[in-house]
UniProtKB/TrEMBL annotation:
It catalyses: 2 GTP = 3',3'-c-di-GMP + 2 diphosphate. This is diguanylate cyclase. InterPro entries: Diguanylate_Cyclase, GGDEF_dom, Nucleotide_cyclase, Rev_trsase/Diguanyl_cyclase. It comes from Caballeronia udeis. It comes from the Bacteria.
Length: 95
């Protein structure tokens, strides 16, 4: 491998490493760390395509926090944020 090829390869590696945090900002919710709507849609489409090819059963679960506004009204924005963080940690650990 020539010096130019090695340098180009290293630049690609560096660029990919630099793009990872930017991609995270674009696809993850900064409060919970969970996939945002855009990323969830991408993941869902990828999985639907995969299971369609493999002819496998597939299910999706959507979760909703009932009465969340009342919790935020009672505990404030910081309390509501903490509730969302805790809920996301439990959801992530359960999946």
């Amino acid at each position: 491998m020539s010096a130019l090829q090695a340098r180009l390869k290293q630049q690609r590696v560096d660029l990919k490493a630099a793009l990872n945090p930017i991609q995270d900002l674009a696809t993850l919710d900064d409060l919970t760390g969970l996939a945002n709507r855009r990323r969830a849609r991408e993941l869902l489409l990828t999985e639907v395509t995969r299971v369609d090819r493999a002819v496998q059963p597939f299910s999706v679960a959507l979760l909703d926090l009932d009465f969340f506004k009342q919790l935020k009204d009672r505990f404030g924005h910081a309390g509501g944020d903490q509730i969302l963080r805790c809920f996301s940690e439990v959801a992530r650990a359960s999946v």
